[in-house]
Amino acid sequence: MAKKQPLAQDAYNELAEEYAARVDTKPHNAYYERPATLSLLPEVTGKRVLDAGCGPGVYAEWLVEHGAHVVALDANEKMVALARQRLGEKVQILQANLEAPLDFLEDGSFDIVVSPLVMDYIKTWEPVFGEFHRVLIPGGYLVFSMEHPYMKYATHHLMSNYFRVERVEYVWRGFGKPVNVPSYRRPLSGVINPLLRAGFILEQILEPLPTDEFLERDPEDYEELMHSPGFMCVRAVKGEKAV
Fold first, then answer.
1. pLDDT tens track for 118-177
2. Which of 27, 34, 193, 238 has the smallest number of CB atoms closer than 10 Å to its CB?
3. pTM
4. Which residue in 112, 89, 136, 126 sits closest to 239, CA to CA?
């Protein structure tokens, strides 16, 4: 039986080059989600970090520049190639599906897992969080970002049930030609409870505000994000897994 393709791969095949070209300066990424997610990271110097869903390598590059030892994964072949092009030999970059066991990674081999804007493409979170828990050292950190559950429900509420995990679609217009991108929306309980069941201790939920640089680049969306959330960032610590 052929392996199931991860969600949104056709979309990212279309988006990959433009995404890589714009991600360093596109306001929603560079001046909103990324500074918020990075603010939740502990000190990374000398730490082993798993970049789970590395895209074109912007987080991996930041981590290496700040003294981390990084292994980066992405499901999309084009994104892996773009990350290797960006980072050269600085980072071990592998193509891997987070919905499959990460059995090529040893238990307790990372101090930190960072997973930026990746979990929205995964329907069932318990196995993924279980693998993150396994590869982290005791007391290791998981930091991830996602589209805010409120925003995703508000966008689709006329044909949606808040309490379900549902497949939804958006037309992305910020990376060149419009591309239809599928993802999953879920209730807040569907974010927190799988994390706790996997053995993590929730430390912080950050509902970020856009930065001043965002205001300079995109005043209209800045005003909207000052009143309505776009992303949510989470920091958790590896605890004891429930028996």
1. 999 999 999 999 999 999 999 999 999 999 999 888 887 777 899 999 999 989 988 888
2. 193
3. 0.95
4. 136
